[in-house]
Design brief:
By secondary structure, this protein is of the alpha+beta class. About 30% of the residues lie in helices and about 35% in strands. The strands form two sheets. Strands 5, 6, 7, 8, 9, 10, 11, 12, 13, 14 and 15 form an eleven-stranded antiparallel sheet that branches. Strands 2-1-3-4 form a four-stranded parallel sheet, with helices on both faces.
């Protein structure tokens, strides 16, 4: 009988996954498989040891992008080679959205039990791994500053409201970028380095991004004035970025070094990341993710 570890975050999203736990366990029992729940907690250091002891076929992650980030880091650091299943149940579920797995969980559970998975690239920023996005600059700290009660009550809207409140305080960074040896200097409101095409709950942020091509996509919102920045933001949110958008720098590369002329913190998958400068490398096909098909997402 197959068995899986189910890592779940009891406070992600609207803190409602606990009410679905029995439903998920029953769904896998119907498939003659066993789920072994593991509840995440602040400062937890035992997840890797738990997974190693259980020796499951795979690890299922129920939470948001931050919970997935935590599990990816545990598996990479502990050198645990097993597929990851993603059950998006957080406030923001960008990677699950990209994969499309939440659209039909019953079908997805069938794929997990049938071991349908695909290799996926992982980014590494200053020694910390990320599955979907690394960012810095204006608005990137919003996710860290939203009140937990407000986030539980309003979900994604809490992020948007907080972001609107930050607009009057927007300022730019002067960035020094090295992308596979190509050097660029530019003023920027923010930058994101993405693995998939979904980031910040926005679709088609980088339409050409692929999660298994051995490259990451850097997008820089250039210093262009608040009016033009807001117009760019509108296009990004609506998924209608113009291919020749002059205020958006887009580069694909295997590695990046991004420095700023002033202190700035980064964000990795919605979690607080290391301070700049960021040294980012792509680790090609580092993990496997359970998907609906073995082809492209």
């Amino acid at each position: 009988m197959k068995r899986y570890v189910l890592v779940y975050n009891p406070v992600s999203g609207h803190a409602t996954f606990r009410q679905r736990l029995d439903e998920i366990i029953e769904a896998f029992q119907r498939r003659r498989t066993v789920l072994i729940p593991y509840r995440t907690s602040l400062g937890d250091t035992h997840m890797g040891e738990f997974i190693r002891e259980v020796q499951p076929e795979g690890v299922l992650v129920a939470g948001g992008d931050g919970t997935l980030h935590e599990v990816v880091n545990v598996l990479m650091r502990e050198k645990l080679s097993m597929p990851i299943g993603v059950i998006g149940s957080g406030t923001s579920n960008d990677f699950a959205t990209y994969l499309g797995v939440n659209n039909d969980l019953e079908a997805y559970f069938d794929c997990i039990v049938d071991d349908i998975s695909r290799p996926v690239d992982v980014g590494c920023a200053n020694g910390e791994y990320f599955i979907n996005v690394a960012s810095a600059g204006a608005l990137t700290s919003v996710a860290h500053e939203v009140n937990v009660r407000l986030k539980h009550a309003m979900g994604k809207m809490a992020y948007y409201l907080r972001g609107i409140g930050e607009i009057p305080k927007l300022h730019t960074l002067h960035l020094h970028i090295d992308a596979d040896g190509e050097k660029i200097e530019t003023g920027a409101y923010l930058f994101v380095i993405v693995n998939s095409s979904v980031a910040g709950s926005m679709q088609n942020v980088a339409a050409d991004a692929k999660i298994d091509d051995g490259k990451l996509d850097l997008l820089v919102a250039r210093d262009s004035g608040i009016t033009e920045f807001m117009a760019l933001a509108k296009d990004v949110v609506s998924g209608n970025i113009k291919p020749d958008e002059k205020n958006l720098l887009h580069i694909q590369a295997k590695s990046f070094v991004v420095e700023a002329d002033e202190p700035a913190e980064s964000d990795l998958d919605g979690e607080r990341g290391p301070a700049l400068p960021l040294h980012v490398d792509t680790i090609q096909r580092a993990i496997r993710i359970y998907t609906m098909t073995e082809g492209e997402a």
